[in-house]
Amino acid sequence: MNFLQPAMLLALPLIALPILIHLINQNRYKTMPWAATMFLLKAKRMARGMARLRYILLMLARMLAVAGLIFAVSRPMSGGWLGLTSSNSPEVTIVVLDRSVSMEEQNPQTSESKRSTALKKLTEMLQNTESNTKLVLFDSAYAKPLEISSVAELEALPAASATATTTDLPALMQNVVEYIETNETGRTDVWICSDLRQNDWNPTAGRWETVRRQLSVREGLRLFLLTYPDVAKDNIAVSVSGVHRRESLGGADLVMDIMLTRSTPTETAENVELTIIIDGARSRLNLELTGGQLVRKGHAIPLDKEAREGWGRVELPRDSNLSDNVYRFVYAEPAVRKTVIVSDDEDAAEMFRVAASTAADRSLVYEAEILPSASANAIPWEDAAMIVWQAPIPDGLLAKQLEDFVTSGRSVMFFPPKTPGANNIFNAAWTEWRTPDEGEQFPFKPWRTDADLLANALSGAPLPVGQVQCYRACNLDVKLATSLWQLENGMPLLARAGTDRGAAYFCSTLPTTAESNLVSNGITFYVMTQRALARGAGALGIARQAESGTIPEAITSKWTALDDVSQQTYVSHRPISAGLYRATDKLYAMNRPLSEDNAAVISDDTLDQVLTGLEFTRINDKVGGAMQLASEVWRTFLMLMILALLAEALLCVPDQVPKKKSLEPAT
Amino acid sequence: MRDFIDPAVISRLAGLAMDARQPMIGSVSGRHRSPTRGSSLEFSEYRKYVPGDDTRRLDWRAWGRSDRFYIKEYEADTNLRLTLIVDVSGSMNYGINGSQDQGKTKLDYARSIAGTLAYLAAAQGDAVGLYSAGEKFQREIPPKRSPAHLKFVLDELALLKGEGETGLPTALHQAAEKIAQRALVVIISDLFMEPEELRSCFQHLRFRKHDVAVFHLLEQSEIDFEFDRPVKFVDLEGAAPLLVDPTTIAKQYRQAVQTYLADLKKIVRDSAVDYHRVSIEEHYAEPLTRFLLARKR
Question: Is the pTM of this model over 0.80?
Answer without folding.
Answer: no
